[in-house]
Amino acid sequence: MPKTKQPLSANDIRRIYSSAPNSTRHAVGGVSGLELQKSVSGSCSWVLRTLVNGKRREIGVGGFPSVSLGEAREDARRLKSDIRSGIDPIAQRSHARLEAKRLTSLEATFGEAMEKFLAIKLEEFKNPKHQKQWKQTLNKYASSLLSLRVSEIKHDDLMKVLEPIWLTKTETANRVRGRIEKIIDWAIFHGNRTEANPARWKGHLELALQTPSKIKKTKHHPALQLSQASDWYHDLQQRIGISPLALEFCALTVARSGEIRGARWSEIEDDLWIIPPDRTKNGNEHRLPLSLRAIEILETTERSSEFIFPNSRDGKLSDAALSSCMRRINANARVAYLDRESGKPAVPHGLRSTFSDWVSEITEYPSEMAEVALGHAVGSAVERAYRRGDMLLKRRKMMEDWSNFLGAKT
């Protein structure tokens, strides 16, 4: 009879580990198919070679010396017993890994999901102000969600965030809801949640909260009445200083207050003021043709700073600079400059509405041209894609006519 090969001993295994050539396999014995595999790098691991559902498979049983010879044989016997019972150890392990991964992903908190989402999505925002607002509003109003697991956020959690501000700060509350919805949608896509999004509006929160548009109407900024525009402009020109000049430039260009205060000499090209995308509300470059009076203001203004209308320290004017100037004009006027509908004193932003009224009620310029002058998006996304021009030549004449209407003839 042929001599039966004796199962390897613990000493045999240690000799293989220390001195056997790399990239070799050694039958262990004691359990059919159990081998000690020595890799190219010299590390050793236990492998069970066996049939699983009629297919030859190799199943890892751990590494040596962390798993001893006795433990490897015991695990190999258990695996073979499972296989005889119809269990596929490889499929079982794969399922366990997926489940562990799923459970780990479901541990993610809303705060963690928010940070990951913002790290990716904030790059899409061209305006740094929008980036800052996203994070600030979520940290301020959705702070109660930050430590909650995304997978466990419920309808009641959303209501605790939204209800206190839904009626008093409706616009902000609706933005917060939309931002929470986007983050949870992102988390669902990445496996952090399996249930429906509790922040969704349609078919869910719309049944629990009032429709934002029905809570309060959009408030319009108090505007100059057309019949008072020339008198107001005359009063403005009697005032001296940087703020009155900035306010006059604001009236002539109908730009936003923030765009005026941040205006730089580098943005002026001949008779054009080109506001870069990062300083406009819609994130697009805005070209404004300058009237003769607007150019005159630039020609008579000192270039002591990068800003066209700097403060006393050559920095940017404060938020209140133009508003304060307009309040002083109103306080000294013989007849108050009040908004026609609200009866409130006109404010700098209202000059844009006065300009729109002038275009629609007094001139024959198309409203579309006025919208472009104001830096608004005109038409659908498709229409804007096909409209390459910004009607600059036509707007140049319109802005000169507007300047003349105000009484700025040179």
Describe this protein's structure.
This protein is α+β, with helices and mostly antiparallel strands and about 400 residues long. The chain has three domains: about 10-100, 2-Layer Sandwich (Double Stranded RNA Binding Domain); about 110-215, Orthogonal Bundle (DNA polymerase, domain 1), CATH 1.10.150; about 225-405, Intergrase catalytic core (hpI Integrase, Chain A). It has helices spanning about 10-20, 70-85, 90-105, 110-120, 130-140, 155-165, 170-190, 210-215, 230-235, 240-255, 255-260, 290-300, 320-330, 350-360, 365-375, 380-385, 390-405, and strands at about 25, 35-40, 45-50, 55-65, 270, 270-275, 285-290. The strands form two sheets. A four-stranded antiparallel β-sheet has the order 1-2-3-4. A three-stranded antiparallel β-sheet has the order 5-6-7. Helix 5 packs across helix 7.
Notable features of this structure?
alpha+beta; 3 domains; elongated; 410 residues; DNA polymerase, domain 1; 3-stranded antiparallel β-sheet; Double Stranded RNA Binding Domain; 47% helix; hpI Integrase, Chain A; 17 helices; 4-stranded antiparallel β-sheet
The secondary structure category is: alpha+beta
CATH superfamily of the largest domain: Intergrase catalytic core
Distance between the termini: 123 Å
Q: How many strands in all?
A: 7
The largest sheet, given as strand count, sense and whether it forms a barrel, is:
4 strands, antiparallel
Which strands sit side by side, in order, in the main sheet? 1-2-3-4
Percent of residues in helical segments?
40-55%
- Stated plainly, the CATH topology of the largest domain is called hpI Integrase, Chain A
Arithmetic mean pLDDT: 86
Radius of gyration: 36 Å
Overall 3D form: elongated
Task: Summarize the helix and strand pattern as letters.
Answer: HEEEEHHHHHHHHHHEEEHHHHHH
**Number of discrete helical segments:** 17
CATH architectural label of the largest domain: Orthogonal Bundle
